[in-house]
Amino acid sequence: MKLFFTVAMLGLLCVPAQAQLRPKAKAILKQKQAKQQKQADAVERFLAMSPEDRRQALAQLPPAHQRQILQRLNALELLSPEDRQSLRGRMQAFSDLPAGHREAVRVELRSLRAMSNQERRRRFDSDEFQRIYSDDERQLLRDVFGQPRQQEE
Questions:
Q1: Do 153 and 117 contact (CB within 8 A), yes or no?
Q2: Which of 22, 53, 69, 116 could pair with 49 as two cysteines, CB 3.0-4.6 Å apart?
Q3: 142: helix, coil or strand?
Q4: CA distances for 135 relative to 64, 78, 108, 129, angstroms
Q5: Distance in angstroms (rounded) separating the CA atoms of residues 122 and 102
Q6: What is the pLDDT of residue 131?
Q7: How does pLDDT run across 15-57, given as a tens digit for each residue?
Q8: What are the CA-CA distances from residue 49 to residues 22, 45, 55 (Å)?
Q9: Are residues 99 and 107 in contact, defined by beta-carbon separation less than 8 angstroms?
Q10: Residue 17 has what pLDDT?
Q11: Angle subtended by helix axes 117-125 and 99-113, to nearest 10
Q12: Please, are residues 105 and 137 in contact by the beta-carbon 8 Å criterion?
């Protein structure tokens, strides 16, 4: 009986610890998203700078951060103005999603990147994909991979 009481008390004590994990996980997710937004904002600021201002600003950053920003800038500069605007629109649509949905879409993006085009098309057409994601989320995912808009049935 004493053992049962001890186990029951331990179980009750563990519940608050589990309940605390959820706010901590949310806080970590929020920090990660803030960091990503900060990085995206930095790239945008660098794009708006003159080449000389850009060199001076980059010189103040640690080498690893410099390389990361330069890679992103180079990739963006290779895009046509239309593609760059399209990318900005997708980034805005992504940031407009609720936090929990952003993480789900991010995970789906990683998964879709690992698929062939044929596998990706099957995924987009699957009942599960239709059920899990909202119209806006599905369209955002399709847009990222250059898939045509889904036809209304």
A1: no
A2: 53
A3: helix
A4: 38, 30, 15, 10
A5: 22
A6: 94
A7: 343 444 477 777 776 777 777 777 677 777 777 888 898 889 8
A8: 41, 7, 9
A9: no
A10: 39
A11: 140
A12: yes
- The DSSP annotation for 21-85 comes to HHHHHHHHHHHHHHHHHHHHHHHHHHHHS-HHHHHHHHHTS-HHHHHHHHHHHHHHHTS-HHHHH
| Residues 68, 74: Cα–Cα separation, whole Å | 10
Per-residue confidence band for 5, with pLDDT thresholds at 50, 70 and 90:
very low
What's the pTM?
0.59
Q: What is the DSSP letter of 110?
A: H
Place of tokens 């500069």: 77
Dist. CA 105–CA 63, nearest whole Å: 31
Q: Which residue from 149, 151, 138 is spatially nearest to 97, judged by alpha carbons?
A: 138
Q: What tokens were used for 129?
A: 């994909």
Single-letter code of the amino acid located at 19: A
Taking only the tens place, the pLDDT of each residue in 6-24 is 333 334 344 343 444 477 7
